[in-house]
Amino acid sequence: MDIPLTIKDAAAALRAKELTSVELTTALLDRIKTLNPTLGAFITVTEETALAEAAAADAKFAAGEDLGPLQGIPYAAKDIIVTKDAPTTANGVILDPAWGEGWDATVIERLRAAGAVLMGKLVLNEFAIGMPDPAKKFPMPQNPWDLERSGSGSSSGTGIAIAGGLILGGLGTDTGGSTRGPSSWNGVSGIKQTFGRVPKYGCVPLGYSLDHINPMARSAWDCAAMLNIIAGYDPKDPTTVDVPVPDYTSTLNGSVEGLRIGVPMEYFFDAPGLDPETKAAVLAGIDALKGAGAIVTEVTIPHAREAKDANQVIMYSESFAYHKLDLAARFDDYGKYTSEVLTRGLFLTAGDLVQAHRFRSYFKKAVAKVMEDLDVLIMPTSIGPAPKRADMSPSQQLRSAGFTPHWNLTGLPAMAIPCGFSTGEKPLPLSMQIVGKPFAEQTVFQVADGYQRLTDWHLRVPKVEVAAAV
Amino acid sequence: MAEIDVERKVRDLLAEAGFTLTEEQIAIFVEAYPALREGADSLFAVKEARYEEPAVIYPAKV
Fold it and tell me: Is A2 among the domain residues?
């Protein structure tokens, strides 16, 4: 069978009785069996419960019951999100298995209630930070566009599984770019919605004041459909905000006419090391939106370089508090890159953390001022396409420019979508980032969906070299 | 900051926190420390943040 590429297409096919959820789930389970040994995207595959959930979705369709576009749709969750039918490991051996046993995170509860089919738990950078350590027993994630290259992180498994056609949608998390980075390097779409929009209850923390659980899928429409389900106040997460959740898909009509786009050239387009093809692709994407009726203005985000530092100070401090005792007692049980990055919090002071939060107050207001007369900002998601894993190191990441942490610091919604491919023997996805105002995800989706109706970058599928890993 | 000061500082902080690491592991933190400090110190140089309140909200109501 031809597996639909998107949740939207699969939902239509299920309702047209062109396929059943059991058929779709079975076909994807077969792909997982074939490709996961190469791609290293899944830690746990919940085949039995997935087929049972798919059968239940089909029974509802047969009874005329329709819970919405996620009914019968296979998805998977990053393995720091608690699910009652599979262990939660955080991609390591440190986390007490008893903590996550026998219950569901709020987002999983909501997806189950919407009839979605959970296929299993996905690989990540251990505890959502650092880089994969080949010496540990967990699968090594590989970019489906070029197996020598990184699948990014920390939601690497989610990005790889969607790009590789193993699932139609998935859940990632994002503290400094961990949803948008894997979306960028694997060529899929992913939104970090406004902080407080989606409950984090049931997710292993990294940076308490920066963490988000997010939808990832091929298209903006698919992400919007997922966000419709997982968004909304949860009394179990005091950081969620009790504000109405719009129907994000209902307003998507492809029009960007009159939308005001700000382009922050300073820092985001002139950072040292910014790949010229990435810069050109993002600027071409902005031109395409301008051609479709958007109004484009150049703007400046003040202190953008310091904003990345502030996000790091907060993330390292908050994560160190969670991990200090385990690091002191079991340093070598962590992956070597995980312990390296988590321990950075030891070298920061209480004053550093408070100053970072003072900077955060200033920066949030400064960006709000820049965006007063704008609807969105657009910039590159990453400094370039996926590098070779052998060329990466945590120290290089510490020093290089980044374009995603700013939007964790401010809490603003930010979405990564594919906007081109690099040249060369193995073309790699390039990505642009669309940033909106607080709780204005629908505007971000409108721009992303409008762009995806003009282009087909998000529908390109890698040909995975299965034999390479045998 | 002189290199010898960095190494002493890193070793002291690790020891005070109860970390027992190899020389190779300590060397990684000695290398990273200047960039970490530079990033944190740069935030004190932002004059616009001088009189800001920290972006931490403590809800008194449970």
Answer: no
Hey, of B43, B53, B57, B61, which one would you mutate to test binding to chain A, going by the most A CBs within 10 A of its CB?
B43
pLDDT at residue A358, rounded to an integer: 98
String of b and e for A264-301 (b: at least 16 CB within 10 Å)?
A: beebbbebeebbebbbebbbebbebbeebebbeeebeb
Question: What is the predicted pLDDT for the residue at A470?
Answer: 38
Count of domains observed in chain A:
1
Q: Which domain holds residue A379?
A: 7-469
Complex ipTM > 0.90: yes
pLDDT at position A468, please? Answer: 47
**How confident is the model at residue A165, as a pLDDT?**
98
Residue A403 lies in a domain: yes
Question: Are A359 and B14 inside 8 Å of each other by CB?
Answer: no
Q: Would the pLDDT of A185 be above 80?
A: yes
Residue of A78, A121, A192, A279 with catalytic role: A78
Instruction: Kindly tell me if the per-residue pLDDT of A220 is higher than 50.
Output: yes
Sign of torsion over alpha carbons A275, A441, A307, A107: negative
Q: Give the domain CATH number at A36.
A: 3.90.1300.10
